[in-house]
């Protein structure tokens, strides 16, 4: 029996979410999200965001949500800015480029786009010569938590938002792991902050208690025209939209989304303390549920026999960067078993 | 309480399918379809198809499956042939064109492509002048049952397959409602026939007992290179592939897929008899679970108060073509209640 | 020595146009259309159109102009309406679909879209159910003269324009052979009419005296944002834009464009009279420079020995529809030689 | 009267090229490259390349040639590798991404891809984990001369070619300025070397004596199926293909292409000597016809009054990198006039 620390989607769904599907299974409703579960879930999300006029849509997965939002908000000839470590830049198999748009990269600092680098990029473009021959930076994509598990501060997010508004481009926040970001140690950005500062973002379900599903929230009226049709065109309109609606309705009842996220942070905290104590070195310091650790290759091969984790890449000939991830579903007994192996 | 006859995806999933998800919920497995449920389901599907070397992949929905299969099997500059009533031609919001490929239409006969029309199209193209300026017909798409609920005969499918092989283009069968097609009155095409005659097809789950999911089967070694990566690029690679695997594994255990399909045909048979008896006129004669009925507009408005069904379009000023659909989940009591209203 | 009647681009350019290139050959100017020849040509075109605020751009060829204009004026999820005989529907190798947009076809009448059919299509769409699953008709494409050499009347064009404005979609006129349309027998649509009734159109150079080049005219302020950059993205921004500018500047000096077009109509008139006199049957009656004639196959094979013309397709087993075309450059002696062969 | 040193396309065409168009102007030939001029030009190019079986096609411009070749040679899901300074990466307005393919960048060394960096990238990809989620490196794009005017050595090109063949990806060389590269001081790569080591390359006409046109050469049988149709789909098939054919036929008669290139190198040599002598600093050392010079901003503004050149970007607050370019058409008197101003 292997210990699974490779990602935060190794189990299906929080039991309360699955139970909701069982309970509503044979209730007949219309398709494509025109159902009372979706309506209720949207309203709960608007309330949680303090954003009563937001447009909310449910998509199935993260890559799909990213490609659909980005391609429909960009105009032809525009690209999306992202950190060079951004998920869309590296790990979505070119899904954004497949829609005809370039991902324009900015060197990351701890997985983040800094306000300074963003402003420099945009100023250089808008004062440069010959920009007719270049891709227009038409949108900013950030992830929170980032691909390195790091978090934007409220100060950073505020500055980034202001720069985007100065240059009149939308700010899109990928919240695939948003729940974990909200409850991480030292987190000072709330869901309401995000709704207020971003033009569009999504609340990740797949990695935070749902069977599948991401809730895309357009906060300020910039919803692309005929967005449901565009979702259909992307193959991203689920026939049984009610499956997504019922899940998010459950996750946003009694603060379940936030409450179940805490387990990931608590188990990660214990694990990180153990790594430190036993002399392991972190590749990057992350306050959320992803831990990047440098293993000597001997340890790597020893651990691989009992534990599933992700290999990030070689550091040098003898060392490898690996990732351990906790989730809403991580069992403390598995954490202890892993610690015993370190 | 409305009676739902608008489609075959008004409920979530067959209870046995949902139960399987509940039972396996907290078992930790790897993502993206690298899990024992997918492996088992693929093997069961290969067996059911008598196609031991088939490549099987699980996608989330029909439009996504169509766009992904078509765009990855076509080369640049090629289009896909389809009946002008084909789902990809009319009702997928241009999803195929969005991938850069034209849908080349052939006039339908009862929702079907006839072997004669297909051969004529291909012969004309391949003997014509100036075809460098035209889109190359690089694939044939058919649906079975069709969008009108009709079925190909084994003879027709055999002829169509032979024509495709003569012209060296793949034959793709959209089986979104395949289960119903296999058990319809007079159906003479089996799953094994389809696997033997088509290059690729999919077994619809969304409309036949699954929460979501379509099983794409490449039967003859023509699987596009790096297909998993291409699914990812299309936003069609589910993180929790095991959710799809577990469902198809259940549906292909003890012939469940076929057994639950019968309910749709039995309830449709009773309903069709009632329509006929009460003097309603069918727009098209369908042996499967979709019924196309011509209503005078007064009846239309009366029925709409208690029954949900689809409006297909006006026949003339006073008559409208509507569609009633049954499913694995249709309750006989609802059928009787509808009949009482006719 | 074959007689060439296959198209209207068998020679390079009107001598005055080529002479202009020779004269300005070694004058050094900036690239990409930022030169005095383009400026002058644009101004002359605005004047000829009585459209002082029009935006004018020079592209190299017709397919390129069509794909660039259509893809940049449509939003994602929208398609372009066209007659089913429209050049973009059949003879551009899927160039529009390659940009991700569907060509939505309307059955033609003599190669034209009728106002009635257009209105019916748009009304049906906008009052229909389930249009989220369909491609939005976002633009109308017509050609003038059409692919069959026929012409819109001013009345027809006025009605079509009004319908487009009612539904708030742009009207795009492909004028690849516009010069010939302006001087055809019975033509009652002027360049100013077109500029007043269309949102965008192009004045064909390739087929009317230029070496290459089409002048795209946005008449009413709907020019896509950053259009030069979008041309570049399409590979449609000529480095030596001045080559296009100098040609159109010459063609729009002293009414040259219109004057040289007359030769095509005069030679066609004589040829048509000869066809009629000798008992040939026309497939369609065209007032401009394209003639569609039905040949028995014996005559076809006899003529092919001395004359180059286009085969349009079989009419029946023994007859073939062929096309003869005249141009600004057609020599009367060649016309007489062809007549002698009939 | 300004002195033009901004690029190598400020004049139209070498007089002999233009003269050929004048001479053949009214000869009637078929369209789309099916003419004797194209045939003859192709044969001359095959001979010049010592590549008797090469497939040769004529396209209009460089961005168009790059996008058409790259998109038709890549499979879906594949990207093209290029130096981060490569023209396709930065200065083609996202034309490659518009076709759905990512440009994968490798840090340049003097504008070049080094064999070491290429091998490292490909080895890392092919031994890496999780590459299903990444874009497959399916082709290498290099330019020769590069965007910085530098040249590959025969040794480098040989090693790069071997690495591409080891990993079974085509090597594509953008020769927009190829003529200048062949005659630069110290150049040791011949046209025959390029034909032998690359899978596809193009011989630039636009910047080397033609009015427009690039000759794409597939050297080893990898020509995409139905390439003419794919050119049409890209809007890259010129109706009057003969205009391109006649130009290249002239350029490849009596070694004209190479002979006229020498003027650019000779004038550049004199100019570079003058820059050095007068104490100007080069940003990068280039042996071909592009010179990158660092100007203090005072000098920049002074020179701008009389000379047209390109601003590359700021070096620091007080200095700017600019580019001067010579060409086949550069007049020695203009060089002397520029030197007098330095």
Kindly describe this structure.
- The structure is a homotetramer of 342-residue chains.
- Chain A is of the alpha/beta class.
- In chain A, a hairpin with a 5-residue loop joins strand 9 and strand 10.
- The radius of gyration of chain A is 20 Å and the shape is globular.
- The first copy, chain A, starts with a strand and ends with a helix.
- The model of chain A has no long low-confidence stretch (mean pLDDT 97).
- The interface between A and B is large, with 54 and 54 residues.
Q: Could you provide a short overview of the structure?
A:
Four copies of one chain form a homotetramer. By secondary structure, the first copy, chain A, is of the alpha/beta class. Chain A has helices spanning 15-24, 36-49, 62-73, 87-90, 95-98, 115-127, 154-166, 178-183, 191-197, 227-233, 241-251, 256-277, 297-304, 332-341, and strands spanning 3-4, 55-59, 78-83, 103-106, 136-143, 171-175, 200-204, 214-218, 281-284, 290-296, 307-308, 310-314, 319-325.
Keywords:
342 residues, alpha/beta, globular, homotetramer, 14 helices
Report the C-alpha radius of gyration of chain A, rounded.
20 Å
Helical content of chain A (DSSP H or I, runs of 4+)? 40-55%
Q: What topology, given as strand order, has the largest sheet of chain A?
A: 2-8-7-6-5-3-4
In this structure, how is the largest beta sheet of chain A organized?
7 strands, mixed
Question: Helical stretch count of chain A?
Answer: 14
């Amino acid at each position: 029996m292997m210990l699974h620390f490779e990602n935060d989607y190794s189990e299906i769904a929080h039991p309360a979410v699955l139970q909701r599907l069982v309970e509503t299974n044979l209730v007949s409703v219309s398709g494509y999200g025109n159902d009372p579960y979706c309506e209720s879930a949207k309203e709960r999300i608007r309330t949680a965001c303090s954003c009563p006029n937001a447009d909310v849509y449910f998509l199935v997965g993260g890559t799909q949500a990213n490609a659909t939002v980005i391609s429909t908000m960009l105009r032809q000839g525009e690209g999306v800015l992202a950190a060079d470590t951004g998920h869309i830049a590296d790990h979505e198999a070119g899904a954004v480029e497949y829609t005809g748009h370039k991902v324009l990269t900015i060197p990351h600092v701890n997985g983040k786009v800094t306000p300074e680098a963003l402003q420099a990029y945009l100023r250089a473009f808008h004062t440069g010569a010959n920009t007719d021959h270049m891709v227009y930076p038409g949108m900013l994509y950030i992830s929170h938590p980032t691909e390195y598990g790091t978090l934007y501060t409220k100060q950073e997010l505020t500055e980034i938002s202001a720069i985007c508004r100065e240059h009149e481009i939308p700010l899109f926040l990928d919240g695939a792991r948003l729940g974990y970001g909200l409850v991480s140690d030292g987190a000072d950005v709330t869901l309401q902050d995000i709704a207020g500062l971003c033009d569009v973002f999504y609340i990740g379900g797949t990695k935070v208690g749902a069977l599948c599903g991401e809730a895309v929230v357009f906060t300020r009226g910039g919803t692309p025209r005929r967005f449901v049709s565009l979702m259909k065109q992307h193959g991203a309109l689920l026939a049984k939209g009610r499956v997504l609606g019922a899940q998010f309705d459950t996750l946003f009842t009694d603060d379940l989304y936030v409450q179940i996220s805490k387990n990931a942070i608590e188990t990660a905290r214990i694990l990180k303390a153990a790594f430190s104590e036993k002399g392991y070195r972190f590749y990057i310091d992350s306050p959320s549920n992803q831990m990047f650790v440098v293993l000597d290759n001997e340890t790597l091969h020893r651990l691989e026999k009992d534990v599933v984790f992700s290999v990030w890449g070689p550091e040098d000939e003898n060392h490898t960067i690996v990732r351990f991830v906790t989730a809403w579903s991580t069992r403390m007994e598995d954490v202890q078993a892993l610690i015993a192996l370190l």
